[in-house]
Amino acid sequence: xxxxxxxxxxxxxxxxxxxxxxxxxxxxxxxxxxxxxxxxxxxxxxxxxxxxxxxxxxxxxxxxxxxxxxxxxxxxxxxxxxxxxxxxxxxxxxxxxxxxxxxxxxxxxxxxxxxxxxxxxxxxxxxxxxxxxxxxxxxxxxxxxxxxxxxxxxxxxxxxxxxxxxxxxxxxxxxxxxxxxxxxxxxxxxxxxxxxxxxxxxxxxxxxxxxxxxxxxxxxxxxxxxxxxxxxxxxxxxxxxxxxxxxxxxxxxxxxxxxxxxxxxxxxxxxxxxxxxxxxxxxxxxxxxxxxxxxxxxxxxxxxxxxxxxxxxxxxxxxxxxxxxxxxxxxxxxxxxxxxxxxxxxxxxxxxxxxxxxxxxxxxxxxxxxxxxxxxxxxxxxxxxxx
Length: 387
What we know:
Blueprint: H1 3-9, H2 11-23, H3 32-44, E1 48-51, E2 58-63, E3 66-76, H4 102-118, E4 124-132, H5 140-146, E5 155-166, E6 170-171, E7 175-178, E8 180-189, E9 193-194, H6 204-222, E10 229-238, E11 244-245, E12 248-257, H7 262-278, E13 283-292, E14 295-297, H8 300-314, H9 331-337, E15 340-348, H10 370-386
Helix pairs in contact: 1-10, 2-4, 4-10, 6-7, 8-10
């Protein structure tokens, strides 16, 4: 039986698992029950299980019939703090939601585990099934790497279901796929005084307003327009009373870019913030709170294996190109440890009313494509190991 037929055979199982995990989402770093259930599902397949000790990650190991390389297939597992409004019979009732589709990722990887276990004697090497927690807070990948899950991995594969991408289409485009994100906190320190005597103080709010304007000018005037760059100030908090000049403002924001010279961008950010604040006699500091690297498909061998896997199973017409996304993914940290490929699986279906974007409270997926995601991951693993 070939991979396509096996995927059809396990289609109901994959949908059942998607609905189970959809109904009980847990947010980042709290995926305790999710971890327990994944372990149980893998053990029922006869797959060796290696739970992470310092996070809620799980690794399943499928040993091939012949010696060879090791390929990793990855799913993220955390949900979001979103109140679900889908009215699905298996909708979450716990105040959290798999609004980004990680329930679909879990079920597709479990499906790939089923398929690859069925053909393990044909594999020239091993397959690691990586179930990663805390993707939404850009922590889980690094936690699992610190536990050594990538030490013997020769290549890693990941995909994301995407709400604006038509069901039945798959994208493994070369080049820039998802941007690196560098999140920061800016603190502006002024001097408080009564609002009737502003000359006696240093207004941190006015200084902050100029900092925000000058940062936007950096994007439009100092950045090469051929290099995508987004700079966002998302929060601003300061002041204590309507008639007091504010002595402190704290802002949070993020930079998203594909640039290889991030150090320069971050130094420029600090330069603009500090110099602008100084022009108002205020003091300023910039702290990078967390970051993730860009996802770039630049390994042509893996790109070709992934695209050919789609063609073998579902024809060249299933391949499409999704525009570059300025959102971010901590899968990028795995790609720093081993060559990787990252793709997108379309789950939008207007006829079924499946039209909402990822992170929307009505987001859901066309379940009829999930077994195809399992099949493509399995075909990629087989072809990589046996190439």
